[in-house]
TrEMBL record, chains A, B:
PANTHER family: TRANSCRIPTIONAL REGULATOR (PTHR33164:SF95), TRANSCRIPTIONAL REGULATOR, MARR FAMILY (PTHR33164). This is Transcriptional regulator, MarR family. Residues 8-139 form the HTH marR-type domain. SUPFAM superfamilies: Winged helix' DNA-binding domain. Signal peptide: none annotated. The lineage of its organism: Bacteria, Pseudomonadati, Pseudomonadota, Alphaproteobacteria, Hyphomicrobiales. GO terms for molecular function: DNA-binding transcription factor activity.
DNA sequence: TACTGATAGTCAGCATACTGATCAATAAGA
DNA sequence: TCTTATTGATCAGTATGCTGACTATCAGTA
């Protein structure tokens, strides 16, 4: 009988479960209310001002139908803006607000602390190796999910 | 600027995303309709007949509020049964049905195939190392999520 | 230019996950 | 034994994620 602990899928789920819990706890301790998904979206909007939702989805490997709700909540919190694109009337251009910029800046230490805590059982070398192996497995499986990672077309 | 690819949390999410997609695709190809979560729950019920929902949750590290819905769906599909415990009138005892047993048996090749596909970018040695590091990181962070892994109290 | 196919965004519906609350029942203590 | 704390299960509410469908728009082509 194969144990759960021999199933990469089970280990993936568990590691992700812990990493989300750690992220939320650190961010809340810092006095903010932002999910990992919202953080990644906001940071990516800041790094790519004016990008549309499909491009954003590709850059962080979210499904496009998930993005809609995430942006809704960022807009509702006053951290991002969504406005119609002038070049393509189907598309919406995304911008970070000053409030969003402030939040990102203040929240960064908590986010970095969370990344350390997730790996606290591993040595520095092991942590690097884990990330390398995850990147490699992810690269090989990129096209297998509905929401693969995509470079921006600029 | 720290890249997403340097964030273990982001890599965890992405690996989990791919592993769920692979699992569902393999299982559907085999002609079944069972999620990773439902599979883990069903296999654990089979291995521990008559266990209650809290024990099940602990064995696979699910939140107890999530288990309710998962069992609902297993029962609705005729794969498991939920009946009041004779020893503790608060608790429900879980049993796998014959249909559930049959499903588990027939679905196993697809599940194992899925585990291989998730790691297809890695050598056998790298796959082992990835699982070892995940297990180690998970063990250190076990208590950090609301749904830690727990041994059965038997 | 009219048609066809592809694309951006949204929506309904379903399945995890979590927070925090509630209810019933049990266990532990004074 | 009476009281109190704890526990098993569920529920309401919220946030990912996905499938599949739909509208509006755009792009390529006959």
């Amino acid at each position: 009988m194969k144990d759960n602990n021999d199933m990469p899928g089970h280990l993936a789920r568990r590691f992700q479960q812990i990493s989300v819990a750690v992220f939320l706890a650190e961010v809340e301790d810092a006095g903010f209310d932002l999910t990992p998904v919202q953080y990644a979206a906001l940071a990516t909007i800041k790094a790519n001002p004016g990008l549309d939702q499909v491009t954003l989805a590709g850059l962080i490997a979210y499904d496009r139908t998930t993005i809609t709700g995430v942006i809704d909540r960022l807009v509702q919190k006053g951290l991002a803006e969504r406005r119609p694109s002038s070049r393509d009337r189907r598309a919406r251009e995304l911008e970070i607000t000053d409030e969003g910029r402030r939040t990102l800046r203040k929240i960064t230490p908590a986010v970095e602390s969370a990344q350390r805590i997730m790996l606290r059982g591993l040595s520095a070398k092991e942590g690097e190796e884990l990330m390398r192996l995850l990147r490699k497995a992810i690269a090989a499986g990129n096209e297998l999910s509905r929401a693969p990672l995509r470079d921006a077309q600029l």
